[in-house]
Write a structure and sequence with these properties.
This protein has helices at residues 16-27, 58-65, 70-79, 95-104, 118-136, 201-217, and strands at residues 5-12, 32-36, 40-46, 52-57, 85-92, 108-115, 140-146, 150-155, 161-167, 170-175, 184-189. The chain is α+β, with helices and mostly antiparallel strands and 222 residues long. The strands form 2 sheets. It has a 6-stranded antiparallel β-sheet with strand order 2-3-4-5-1-6. The protein has a 5-stranded antiparallel β-sheet with strand order 7-8-9-10-11, covered by helices on one side.
């Protein structure tokens, strides 16, 4: 998997239509104008390397996020820039040339972040380490969900089928039969708001092995 891509965010002092025209000229692309009933207009395009490019009115962004629950609303709205227009270039392999072109055209670069984010890359590296370790111990195991939920499934060293899922505050292991969910089941609670959905892979595997040990100790339960 290519981790060399970047996501870029810019702001502009120009209103959205002027900023869209300037961006289109600077990058040599055609932007599609989109109309939104409640939130005005935005502009979108695919760049030559497949990146998604969006130009948005920041007042419209604030109105959109005003619909969030109160606990989330303030932080998100405060993060929206004060300038009239923001630009997101999502997942590009040519960040340097885009930054040069847009900053020369008067756009202000506000962020340049790895895509996927660094924590996602770290989690992927951990899974690349952990899954071969489990397979070397006789597990037939595949990851079918990386987050919200984390999902692993396959067969135990004993040959029994299993399904392991971490979501919200709970990790659960189901074992047995053609449909493990109808067989032996155990759960473990993870402290923290939605903590199970985004467990570090090392912790997710630790809980998996703990639940598997419970099954080994009482295989005839349930």
């Amino acid at each position: 998997m290519d981790w060399s891509r970047q996501s870029l965010t810019f702001t502009s002092e120009q209103p959205i239509r002027g900023a869209a025209q300037t961006l289109a000229a600077a990058l040599g692309i055609v932007l599609e104008e989109k109309h939104h009933d409640q939130f005005g207009i935005s502009f979108h395009a695919r760049g030559p390397s497949g990146e998604s490019i969006g130009v948005m009115d920041t007042d419209a962004q604030r109105a959109m996020f005003a619909l969030l629950p109160a606990g989330q609303r303030e932080a998100v709205i405060d993060s929206i820039p004060r300038e009239p227009t923001s630009v997101l270039v999502h997942s590009t392999s040519r960040a340097g040339s885009i930054i040069d072109a847009l900053t020369s055209a008067g756009f202000i670069l506000t962020s340049c972040d790895p895509h996927p984010p660094a924590d996602v890359q770290a989690a992927d590296a951990a899974w690349q380490r952990l899954l071969p370790e489990l397979r070397s111990r006789g597990w037939q195991i595949e990851i079918t969900g990386f987050a919200a939920p984390i999902q692993l499934e396959g067969a135990l060293p004993s040959g029994d089928r299993f399904y392991y899922r971490c979501r919200w505050d709970t990790c659960s292991l189901d074992i047995g039969g053609d449909d493990p969910a109808a067989g032996w089941t155990r759960e473990q609670i993870v402290e923290g708001d939605c903590a199970a959905s985004y467990l570090h892979p090392d912790e997710a595997v630790r809980i998996l092995l703990d639940l598997h040990t419970q099954w080994l100790q009482q295989p005839s339960a349930d």
